[in-house]
Design brief:
alpha+beta, four-stranded antiparallel sheet, 1 helix, globular
Length: 70
């Protein structure tokens, strides 16, 4: 259900405190250690955000913020 996926992504962005102007540039569903995880990459200006979200619970399991120049 695409609506459910968008809801999880929107909630994850809010939880992660990414700027509302951040754009999702990648979103993949991947199996990691037997669990389904959404892998997101967002950009806002010169800042890149990457996070992993447990697809079943919506919990952010990994979060990283970097400059796009790193």
């Amino acid at each position: 259900d695409h609506d459910a996926i968008y809801k999880v992504i929107d909630e994850a962005i809010a939880k992660a405190k990414a700027p509302s102007t951040a754009t999702v540039v990648k979103c993949e569903l991947d199996k990691d250690d037997g669990r389904w995880v959404y892998e997101l990459e967002l950009r806002d200006g010169r800042t890149e955000y990457e996070c992993d979200i447990n697809a079943a619970t919506g919990v952010i399991t990994d979060w990283d913020v970097d400059s796009i120049y790193d």
